[in-house]
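Quick illustration, no need to memorize.
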Amino acid sequence: MIYHEIYQMDAKLSGRRGGENAPAADGDEGVGRSACAAEGRASVNRLSDHEADEIARAFVTARRQARPLCDFPGRLPATLEDAYRVQDRAIALDGRRVVGWKVAMIRPDLRAGLGADRLCGPIFEGTVHDCRAGGRADVAVHADGFAALEAEFVAGFGRDLPLRPDGATATDILPALAFLAAGAEVASSPLPTLNAIGPLAVVCDQGNNAGAVIGPVLPACAGQPDAALTSEMLIDGVSVGRGSAASVPGGPIAALVFLTRALAARGRHLVAGDVVLTGMTTGIHAVTPGSRGRIAFLGGLGCDIAVTAIAPRLS
């Protein structure tokens, strides 16, 4: 079922290409760069190919071996362009198929300097837990690293979006959607301080992603504002955060528009079968192996999540 009805902001987004001066309130947040940021990058000491490769290799190896990292493995990139170079190299080194993406907001005080207000990272094959038909998601995190659950709206694509230099509009995206579901991001990294270091580090390590939970598909909510599409996260039986689609500026569709543009800049695009985590709605909720989570959307639609420790993998 296609959720045209859910996205009432389509009239504002359709056909627009918001640049760096487009108001954030419109939810059309692109990958535009400010003049100041562009001038600053001209004098930035860029990562060499060798440095980018070494950072990527360190993260991929630590994830594969399920061992923690004590420090960021190299010189921190100074720009998102370099951070995404590391991410692309890590995707190649990891070897698993990318089956989706996560999108996250960048802290407001860092956006001007980075020239973006969101970031993205890959979701790999084998880390998507599909509970649309019910059941419990058994997810794995880095026991000695960073680990959290985040309640998010998950978009699933039923057909490819063509690769276009400037990404896609809401009008392009809506017919390609197969579902919008309750869900959660499994946020985890072998580096415990990844989030504290900041978005440049997060981008380098797969966007701090270790998987996605797809819960019940949400019903069409014609005419309802984003704030009515509620979400809640419980950890070990205690409610730790409540929110809604309005917690993400522009709602899920703005995150998808951003993602298509960010991917296009890297020669990538969304394809049929991809799932997208559109941004946290209730906060970042720390977990450890043994924790039990539950997401509850629209007052009751949800699923249970059991947290375990990531085991080393052979490939």
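The CA atoms of residues 15 and 136 lie 40 Å apart.
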